[in-house]
Amino acid sequence: MSADIIDGKAFAAGLRGRVGEAAGAFAKAAGRPAGLAVVLVGEDPASAVYVRSKGKATVAAGMASFEHRLPADTDQATLEALVDQLNADPAVDGILVQLPLPRHLDADAVLLRIDPDKDVDGFHPVNAGRLASGLPGFVPCTPLGCLMLLRDRLGDLSGKEAVVIGRSNIVGKPMAALLTADSATVTLAHSRTRDLPSHVGRADIVVAAVGRPNFVRGEWLKPGATVIDVGINRVEGGLVGDVDFASAVEVAGAITPVPGGVGPMTIAVLLRNTLVAAHRRAGVPLDDATL
Ligand code: NAP
């Protein structure tokens, strides 16, 4: 039997629509649009594409987009001075510094400099701590998008067995924290995990964020499992995920495709986080459960 395909593209379009409506209401209530500032250092072509599409999506959602492009040889002090300026700018609700930064720059120091209440990427340690402590803050966009897809598919996640493969600060760890907060029983696997297939084999939910093409095999899965493939790997012939789609689709109950699964969720959640930041900063109430 073939798994249901989880249409992240359609879900993301719906989320963007809801954010757009709420952004219009915010602009009326606050007398200004919500604003997202994106900082790009250097000319990495993939980063330039991401920044352009983030800017376009921000404007399409009725928010203000502030793009700052700095040359590749920008020094640490100049970049940090820009972050300080954006922290102080009342028109800016969210700040995103596009990673990776050129190697001579200290990305951790730059991320630490961002006001945690404008950290819509959720990478600041204060926001990681808030997530771990169950306090309101900002959650990294990709794992929050995965959680939205899982809730949409499965409803209540309470008591489900979940295996997250990968423990990065931007995907795996926050994903495990979100699933734990939703009362799933979570195993966080990584490169030192012994007998990964046995862990995956008891999971109702598998989230793969490994960065290895077609790594998770269909034979490992529990029949009917819900599989979220975060991986984006460029191989000859196009993009593939971290899950071997051809074998997994025969065993899983539902699976995200690559492309068209998790990928489109990331920008939609970034817009959502920016709108939430704007409401909090302006003191305008928002029921974020409606987004
Ligand atoms: P990362 O920082 O490289 O982390 C990869 C994780 O996978 C590490 O925790 C690593 O374990 C683990 N791992 C590596 N080999 C393994 C193995 N053989 N068995 C089990 N675990 C293994 O990657 P990331 O930034 O989290 O990204 C993961 C993937 O998601 C990449 O393909 C990336 O392109 C994609 N991604 C997509 C989006 C999106 O918008 N859709 C956003 C972000 C990332 P150790 O910690 O032990 O080294």
Summarize the structure.
This is Bifunctional protein FolD. Residues 6-121 form the Tetrahydrofolate dehydrogenase/cyclohydrolase catalytic domain. It is built from 10 helices and 11 strands.
Q: How do the strands of the widest beta sheet line up side by side? A: 1-11-8-7-5-6
Structural class: alpha/beta
Which homologous superfamily in CATH is the superfamily of the largest domain?
NAD(P)-binding Rossmann-like Domain
| Gross CATH architecture of the largest domain | 3-Layer(aba) Sandwich
CATH topology of the largest domain: Rossmann fold
Mean pLDDT level:
97
Please mark out the parts with pLDDT under 50 across 5 or more consecutive residues, or reply none.
none
What's the story with the biggest beta sheet? 6 strands, parallel
Radius of gyration: 19 Å
Molecules bound to protein = NADP nicotinamide-adenine-dinucleotide phosphate
Cα separation of the termini: 33 Å
Multimeric organization: single chain
Report helical residue fraction: 40-55%
* Tally of contiguous helical segments: 10
Number of domains: 2
Beta-strand percent range: 15-25%
The number of distinct β-strands equals 11
**What are the secondary-structure elements, in order, as H or E?**
EHEHEHEHHHEHEHEEEEHEH
**CATH class (first level) name of the largest domain:** Alpha Beta
- Overall body shape: globular
Your description of this structure?
This protein starts with a strand and ends in a 9-residue tail after the last helix. It folds into two domains: 30-115, Leucine Dehydrogenase, chain A, domain 1 (Rossmann fold); 141-263, Rossmann fold (3-Layer(aba) Sandwich), CATH 3.40.50. Helices cover 42% and strands 16% of the residues. The chain is of the alpha/beta class and 291 residues long. It is globular, with a radius of gyration of 19 Å. Helix 1 packs parallel to helix 10, helix 2 crosses helix 10 and helix 6 crosses helix 7 (172-181). The protein has helices spanning 8-30, 45-60, 76-88, 107-113, 125-133, 141-154, 172-181, 196-200, 245-248, 263-282; strands spanning 4-5, 35-41, 64-70, 94-97, 161-165, 185-189, 205-208, 226-229, 233-235, 238-240, 254-255. The protein contains ten helices and eleven strands. Strands 1-11-8-7-5-6 form a six-stranded parallel β-sheet. Strands 3-2-4 form a three-stranded parallel β-sheet, sandwiched between helices. Bound molecules: NADP nicotinamide-adenine-dinucleotide phosphate. NADP nicotinamide-adenine-dinucleotide phosphate (NAP) binds next to helix 10. The site of NADP nicotinamide-adenine-dinucleotide phosphate (NAP) has 26 residues, from helix 10.
